[in-house]
Amino acid sequence: MKITLFPVFTLIDLPTDLQGSVIEKVWDLTGKDVGLIKGVKPIKVQIKLNAVFPQMSQYHMTQDVLIEVTQIIADFLRQGVLKEAPSSPCNSPIMGLRKPCGKVRIVQDLRKINEIVVKCCPVVPNPAVIMYQVPCDAEWFTVVDLSQAFFSISLHEDSQFLFSFKFLDKVYSWCRIPQGFSESPSIFNQILKKDLEPLVLPYNSTLVQYIDDLLIASKTKDSCKYDTIALLNHLGKNGHKVSPKKLQYCQKEVIYLGHLIEKGSRRISKEGITVVLQMNPPTTKRDVRMFLGMVGYCRQWIPNFSIISKPLTKLTGKEVKDEPYTITLTKEELESFLELKECMCRAPALGMPDYEKPFLLFCHERDACSLSVLTQVHGDANRPVAYFSATLDPVAAALPGCLRAVVAVGQSLSQCEGIVMGYPLTVLVPHSVEILLTRTKTQHMTNA
Question: Which residue numbers delimit the Reverse transcriptase domain (predicted)?
Fold first, then answer.
């Protein structure tokens, strides 16, 4: 049996600027350390009336994964993240998934628990929108990844039994909010946001937060350096842990949320493109959804996304059976799959919005889809900031072509409002829209 040993990160391995200037307790040097955020009340989970607690069988693990999971559980017990819970009425099985780096992480199947808890309104930002918080003139960047972030928030004792699992004839439950729980991202996002409110960055860099991923964007290298140090010290004093291996410190190019960020622009990362290119043609409804989810995350780089993806999107409808039924792609569906891959490869760099310049929105409608591109003048040309597309609803799709074009303009304006935010915007539309709005009266439109 082969056991892989992973090198331990030491303080000497940190960038020289951070040695001695950042409190040591902020670092997760072993990859196993868990923080505990100060001043946060334990989270209590509300259960639906007449809820039935799940009792699911444990999934099979290979021997090598079993050994690593045993060690992980021992580390969590030592740090108070887990506890034994022999009388818990719930059992949601765990799995040991091997990460690309070779390490194993515990994943718990909490789908049944997620069905019986009362859900709060999700408070998680749209990753496509928050990227536009990055100033167009920022040139230096730091990305901070919080280590095992959800485990840094305590779970109320009355709710711990819900997240129990059986492992090697013992029952354990989480004492911290677990991964896989549907409310964990929203809970953590709100708590970290509140925790960062008192932080004052001395050089006024921009701080962007998406759940547990933080980005500092600065105009100069020194401001990036000192504001990064201020952020790390604030996190350490408040009980967070930071992964030193994943730290991208004072760089002109960084990967953040799958985007390659540099001065004035953003691209799809090479890693993100590679993952999509390696995907095989889907054979099940689940495969289709997974592929569309991957490329859909990058749809702002893909002109006409809704039209190109339409053949595959139809496969996610109710008329197509779920697993274990398989899907054989038609020629049209396969062409859609391959074209989306090609679009990922040739995706352009998108400009960061410059709020000192006006925006231009070019809109039109085709095949019952709204299609648009938001641009700004860059040099002697218009540079795209984002591409938008969406399928019209059945009522709008049944309208005459000139009215569909009007609906498409309204839809495009709604899609770009998170970027434009009320700044000057010129909308460019087909001539038929201008005629309809200014010179024609129809039964579909009134002065109201």
Answer: 78-261
